[in-house]
Design brief:
Order of helices and strands: HEHEEHEEHEEEEHEEHEEHEEE
Strand content: 25-35%
Largest sheet: 8 strands, mixed
Structural class: alpha+beta
Number of strands: 16
Number of helices: 7
Strand order of the largest sheet: 2-3-4-1-13-16-15-14
Distance between the termini: 48 Å
Helix content: 10-25%
Radius of gyration: 20 Å
């Protein structure tokens, strides 16, 4: 695959946030994440905050932001949460808030999440794996975190959903206990897709991910779990245990939820979160040779939103997946042009 050839690795999930003074401490306090880099773009009036779950004994940049933290960000083996703050939302009384991806017109009218004039649902959640879902949920609730679903509520027992300050859903998932010292690890990014087969084909055969698990609920939906696996991880896992990797490995899985039948409906389109209502923005992969990879993707007919040479931002590109979600591709070890980080001249 093209992705495998250029060592593409899932490195970010971007969410727009109303107030970084609320969201950054939320993920630090309740989920143990650390701010590993930050960009301010005064000319464009937005800032980016990159949060990561540090592993035991893993050295983090001493100062953020710094050239060291920028280099760390674009060479990291793990996956970050990229929180995008458009300046002014935190103090704007008319700001309506961001869309979590889970309210939509594609739900039954009886659902509390039904949105009559809304879009179809799109992005679903991020997730953290924990050793004990019940204890973690109780601890989060005690510390003032809102829960969308407690572990014993609803049809699916033993998993929970917390809400972040912007209302994005955070699934709390049981992992194989005793594997990590850290109480949590970032374990999923979930997106609903229009066509399950086409989406799996794109992330597996183009982007180079491995399909590790397929969970089918007959006449309802299928969840596909894809991961970036090293050759060592592949060979070390017996075939009948591959489906357990999302609950066993440190890095997150991309979970694609396909609601059966949407592929047959020409008019159906998931809402990607980049037009009104906004929320989730994109997922991103870091790659070894951005320009060469983009040439191959273009030759393979993959649609581009931004080519590496477009616009002022160098070192990155955006492609579209089969559902229309934006997928950012970033040159490993890139650095943003310092001119873009300067305040505009009066």
């Amino acid at each position: 695959s093209i992705g495998k050839k250029y060592n593409a690795s899932l490195q970010q999930c971007m969410l727009r946030i109303k107030d970084p003074k609320v969201s950054v401490p939320f993920y630090e306090k309740h989920f143990g994440m650390k701010l590993v880099h930050k960009y301010d773009f005064p000319a464009f009036k937005f800032s980016l905050y990159f949060m990561e779950m540090p592993r035991d004994g893993h050295a983090l940049p001493a100062e953020v932001p710094s050239p060291e933290s920028e280099k760390y960000l674009w060479t990291m083996p793990g996956c970050s949460l990229e929180l995008t703050h458009n300046w002014g939302t935190e103090s704007d009384p008319d700001f309506k808030g961001y869309w979590s991806g889970n309210h939509g017109k594609d739900l039954p009218e009886s659902s509390p999440l039904y949105m009559k004039d809304g879009p179809n649902r799109g992005f679903g959640h991020i997730a953290f794996n924990v050793d004990d879902v019940y204890a973690t949920s109780a601890e989060l609730e005690k510390n003032g975190v809102r829960l969308q679903k407690r572990p014993d509520e609803g049809r699916m027992k033993g998993l929970a959903f917390a809400l972040d300050p912007d209302g994005y859903w955070i699934e709390i998932v049981q992992r194989e206990a005793g594997l990590f010292k850290e109480p949590r690890n970032l374990s999923q990014v979930m997106m609903r897709v229009k066509d399950g087969a086409k989406s799996v084909e794109f992330y597996r055969d183009v982007m180079g991910m491995t399909l590790v698990r397929e969970m089918v609920v007959p006449n309802d939906f299928t969840n596909f779990f894809l991961m970036n696996l090293s050759e060592e991880e592949k060979t070390a896992t017996p075939e009948d245990e591959v489906a357990k990797l999302p609950k066993r490995l440190w890095q997150p899985a991309l979970e694609l939820t396909f609601n059966h039948g949407t592929d047959k409906d020409d008019a159906f389109q998931v809402h990607t979160g980049n037009s009104d209502p906004q929320g989730f923005g994109h997922i991103g992969f870091i790659v070894d040779d951005l320009e060469a990879m983009c040439k191959e993707l273009e030759a393979a007919g993959v649609p581009f939103v931004k080519k590496p040479e477009d616009g002022k931002m160098r070192g990155l590109a955006f492609i579209s997946d089969p559902s229309g979600y934006r997928v950012e591709l970033i040159q490993r070890a890139m650095a943003i042009d310092p001119e873009l980080l300067k305040a505009p001249s009066p």
